[in-house]
Amino acid sequence: MAVTLTRMDDIAIATVENPPVNAVNYAVRQGLLEALVQTEADEEIRATILICAGRTFVAGADIREFGQPPKPPHLPDVITLLEGATKPWVAAIHGSALGGGLEIALGCHYRIATPSARLGLPEVTLGLIPGAGGTVRLPRLVAAETALDMITGGKPVAAPKALDSGLIDALADGDLQEAALRFARQRLGETLPLPLSAQSPNLPRDAEDWKTRQRRVLDRARGQAAPRAALEILDTALTAPAKEALEQERETFLRLKSHPESAALRHVFFAERAAGQLPRLKGAEPGPLDHIGIIGGGTMGAGITAACLLADLPVTMIERDTDACDAGRARVTDILDDAQRRGLIDASRHAALLSQLTTATDYAALAAADLVIEAVFEDMATKHAVFKALDTHTRPVCILASNTSYLDINEMARATAHPERIIGLHFFSPAHVMKLLELIVTDRASDRALATGLALGKRLRKLTVPAGVCDGFIGNRILSSYRRDTDAILQDGATPSQIDQAMRDFGFPMGIFEMQDLAGLDISWAMRKRRAATRDPDERYVDIADTLCEAGRLGRKTGRGWYLYTDGKTPIPDPEVEQIIAQSAEAAGITRRAFDPDEIITRILTAMQHEGQEILNENIAERASDIDVVMINGYGFPRWRGGPMYMAGHRDS
Ligand code: 3HC
Ligand code: NAI
Fold it and tell me: For burial by CB atoms within 10 Å, which of 132, 194, 357, 412 has the most?
């Protein structure tokens, strides 16, 4: 039974139990309907508490059912009946009330939630709009502006904020069910509030401000259909009779459900949950994570340190000398200062976190470490020296990880006394912000070492994707591959700004040349020089990037790269670059021609998909959808397109 009905004297308690997240499927809809019929018929019952078993309130409609035709009773109908009940229903919320879950709560007469609960309408993140009355009832309960933010942004709000906005009526003090029972009893003599759909909507406070908010949504949405549809339906909800708005909402929901954008976003939803599952680790026990060591306090070392501190993991950072220790500490402090400025931590937490950071030049400070991550210069000799020192100074049970971008971690492992404890943990910059983490599975890594890496990813709330050892692992390998191709497109006739514009129009936040300018051109230049000796002589090699670097054009930091930067941040197409490109084409005997955006994107996608297929053939990635997760979360591939492998027709999750 997905919904069970019990009694506490004259109050009924309807408990939804559909693990793991009480998603609304046919059984829940049917169970709710039966509970409603029974409570209405039973004259002794004066009110009903709707509560959920397990870790959360209803977290939405069951996304797994979305591929099938809807089966009655439909959720909108159940909620309309709920809203029309003659005795009060009180939604008692813990965990997350999301999507259809919040819509059910909006159908109840009152809402009470634990202080840690979160409430939201995340449908837009699945390429949808709320499909069970959310767009109509929410602006009748809270301000139109709050409704717009929740419906078009998809971000859940915390219960205290929900109380301020009027979304819930009370915060539960102590036990949720007890608090809900007390709340219901207090309401027993009162007149039942009008159903939300029978109330008038809260209209926008200021027409100009409303337009600005709408424009902001459309700007952020770029090519996506759902946010645009959400705005349109919200307009209807504010202007048309509720019944008409509800019908229109349902129609739009059903139309979007079968739109490719929603199918792609649902693929990503499940792909992100499948990532990080390594079958060989079933039952493997991770080691402890009480004390983390970080070698190197540069860009990555400082970011990883901050991420660990923010997850309440004490860190010892090793640097080359005391000045470098101070610089590393200063970088970490900057990151925490920024977190404080943005209200993520307060001054006392800032101080408490910094007190958990120790810096040292002597590896002996790592004697008690459980896991050490090196983030020193990208140079094999330096990495070897670091692992040698770690061999001597850490306990054999301590897991050792490299954050290298491209170097062979198997080679690093072979040079140590315990290769089974060496893994890769490839963070992305800025490491305290980016959600992606590649867990590099070295040839001899033990299950315990890998399970510990996964456990760290979980603790840092990262999306951890396993990858085998190869040049660039999953993400950087694909990036190198399509970067080679975009350089070739340049030589063949396009300009950097045409390629960047095509990528932005496709949905990337920035194009590949702007991105390189931001990151600096020198790192990949060093990598190309390192690989020069082993490069296949038959492979097409485009020298444009090398010429730029030789001319001192290293990106934004030098004011010039693929573009010119007069204000340090706005890319301006530079005739000097176009000349370098033209000269390179002439030297290669290429007659340049025009490219249209579709051809550019097709070339880029094909390069990504081809490299992705090679990665699968070599078992570097566990599953095709892991490649999608990496490209979306690490390289700006538009989520609503599902990822390059999904676009190529792979369906393995
Ligand atoms: N339908 C089906 N399965 C769901 C689900 C849903 N709505 N939400 C979560 N799950 C599954 C996950 O796939 C996962 O399954 P697995 O264990 O087999 O991998 C399991 O539940 C646990 O999920 P998480 O790993 O995400 O657990 P967390 O504790 O990290 O997060 C959560 C819980 C915050 C509820 C998160 O799962 C979430 O955000 N879920 C999606 C919520 C959502 O988008 N709801 C709206 C759905 S659309 C809708 O309601 C339409 C309506 O308007 C008609
Ligand atoms: P960085 O140059 O900013 O920092 C390196 C730090 O290591 C410096 O502070 C240096 O003093 C220190 N260091 C060097 N040798 C040391 C030693 N023997 N002992 C202790 N400290 C030492 O470099 P960055 O960018 O942080 O990169 C570090 C590693 O992370 C590299 O392997 C790089 O490939 C990798 N990486 C870099 C990314 C990026 O975007 N910058 C992204 C992902 C990985």
Answer: 132
Tell me which residue range forms the domain holding 370.
282-472
Distance CA 203, CA 430 (A): 41
- State yes or no: is 411 an active-site residue: no
And the tokens for 368? 């008690």
d(CA 433, CA 429): 8
446 and 380 fall within a common domain:
yes
User: At 230, which CATH number?
Assistant: 3.90.226.10
CA 302 / ligand 2 centre spacing (Å) = 9
Q: Are residues 462 and 490 in the same domain?
A: no
pLDDT of residue 150 exceeding 60, the answer is yes
Q: What is the distance between the alpha carbons of residues 49 and 51, in angstroms, rounded to a whole number?
A: 6
Q: What is the pLDDT of residues 397-452, one digit of tens each?
A: 999 999 999 899 999 999 999 999 999 999 999 999 999 999 999 999 999 999 99
The structural domain count of the chain equals 3
The answer to whether the beta carbons of residues 518 and 555 sit under 8 Å apart is: yes
Contact 180, 90 (CB under 8 A): yes
As a whole number of angstroms, the distance between CA 177 and CA 114 comes to: 10
Residues 482 and 386 in one domain: no
Q: Which of 318, 405, 554 to mutate to test the pocket of ligand 2 (most atoms within 8 A of CB)?
A: 405
CA distance linking residue 103 with residue 163, whole number of Å: 17
pTM for this model (two decimals)? 0.94
What ranges make up the beta strands (E) of 444-598?
A: 463-468
The DSSP line for 484-520 is HHHHHHHHHT--HHHHHHHHHHHT-SS-HHHHHHHH-
Nearest atom in ligand 2 to 405's CA: 34
Higher local confidence (pLDDT), 308 or 651 = 308
Report d(CA 495, CA 573) in Å as an integer. 9
| Contacts of residue 600, Cβ cutoff 8 Å, sequence gap at least 6 | 489, 494, 498, 499, 502, 503
Domain match, 346 and 459 both: yes
Give per-residue pLDDT as tens, 154-174: 999 999 999 999 999 999 999
| Cα 155 to Cα 142: distance, rounded to the nearest angstrom | 16
- Please check whether residues 554 and 591 belong to one and the same domain: yes
464 and 487 co-located in one domain:
no
Give the pLDDT confidence score for residue 652 in this predicted structure: 62
> Token match 């424009």: residue?
215
